[in-house]
Amino acid sequence: MTRLPRQARTLAAAVVCLLAAGCAQHPVHVRQPAPVIGEDTALHNRLPTAIRQGGVLRIATDASYAPASSFASDGHTIVGFEPDLGQALGQVLGVAVVFTNHSFDSLPGLVTSHSVDLVMSAVTDTREREKEVDFIDYFVAGTSIVVQRGNPKGIGELSALCGHVVALERGTVQVGLVARSQHNCLGRPIITRLYDNNTDALVQVRTGRADAQLSDYPSAAALVNDARTGAYYQLASTAQYEPGPYGIAVAKDNQALRGAVADALRWLVSSGQYRQILRRWGVEAGAISRVSLNAGGGRSCQPPTTASSTGVSRACPPGLSCGTPCNAARTEARTRAAQTATSKTSSSPSRSSHCSPTCRSPCSLTSSRDGRLSGLMVARTVRTAGSAVARWSRAARAARP
After folding, report:
1. CA-CA distance, 334 to 213, in Å (whole number)?
2. Contact criterion met (CB below 8 Å) for 350 and 391
3. How far apart are CA 140 and CA 18, in angstroms?
4. Alpha carbons 234 and 212: distance in angstroms, whole number
5. How far is residue 106's CA from residue 246's CA, in Å, rounded to a whole number?
6. Which residues contact 25 (CB under 8 A, 6 or more apart)?
7. Where do the domains of the chain lie, and which CATH numbers do they carry?
8. What local confidence, expressed as pLDDT, does residue 37 receive?
9. Average pLDDT of span 197-207
């Protein structure tokens, strides 16, 4: 019997999966692997038996965060730098890739129960989340403040949110960020209102029922630069608060899959294919140069919390957020910051400390280019979200730019 080539077999397996009841419940993203990236047979053979035999890698996402993952104009196909990166991983591993759309809150259970193989959904790798799943880190981004176009409330930084209504998506790291910032408000607390999705939170800002909304920078920047939404929103500033890594989530008892996917991602990084994908989506500034596992849960290196005579503690180290874990990312952050400052003096990011008197509020990196993904160097640092309410981070649910 003549056998089909492996790529054809895996595509056929993906189609069968789509016709099954479990897959047909959600819109999906399936594309035949392009003959750009060759299969690594050794990595393919390291995959769990079920994936090798089925020929399909199942990846769950919440497709509402352009430019990470969102629906195309057909309302069915999931597009973004995450689906493209997942597709490239599938090509290296020699399997088809199926992205399925799910509610964000369901994602951890899907991967721990093995209903899907991976979660790739702008999930920030944090210490709390590492208790549930393992992470293969693939991107870095921080939180931005979105306000109504014209900024009628004059909000320019995190501390300016005191006394204002802030709309947040329930369960994100932004909820924890605001909670940790409340101690700076001195009787004028931030009024937080939580919503089931980021789209609903943004509607509150657009209609004036909230003064600001917090979301991950790539999606916030896409939102304000999209011709369809830019007339309603703008960034309050160029600062990114608490920059941290996005991680591909994998079940802790699936070490074979974790290792194979991590090494496939390392190949994409070293070959340059990874950066090409990010460049196509305008998010190369968030690229990593080294693949890490569970980098969000490193040992904390917080500076002393004693306030100086001026009421402000010593500044955070260059390129770092307060509470940055002790790992190799510190050296990389300083190196990349220095390189950027040298090569792009006119448009390079300037570092400014936004530490509170106790240095428990985040420091941030700022950029001279408001809302332009290509103009911002995202800090290559990671910071644990020190709050149990920060469960699964999401990027802003903006429409595809």
Report:
1. 30
2. no
3. 32
4. 10
5. 18
6. none
7. 6-139+247-293 (3.40.190.10), 141-241 (3.40.190.10)
8. 82
9. 91
For the chain, give the number of residues.
401
Torsion angles phi and psi, residue 153, rounded to 5: -90, -5
Say if CB 299 and CB 123 are below 8 A apart.
no
Neighbours of 85 (CB within 10 A): 24
- Give residue 102's Cα distance to chain centre: 17
For 210-222, the DSSP string reads: -SEEEEEHHHHHH
Tokens of 8: 């054809």
> pLDDT per residue over 113-151, tens digit each?
999 999 999 999 999 999 999 999 999 999 999 999 999
Instruction: State how far the alpha carbon of 63 is from the alpha carbons of 45, 66, 203, in Å.
Output: 30, 8, 18
Tell me the one-letter amino acid at 182: Q
Residue 136 or residue 319, greater confidence: 136
Q: Which amino acid is at 189?
A: P
Question: pLDDT tens across 31-44, in order?
Answer: 444 445 889 999 99
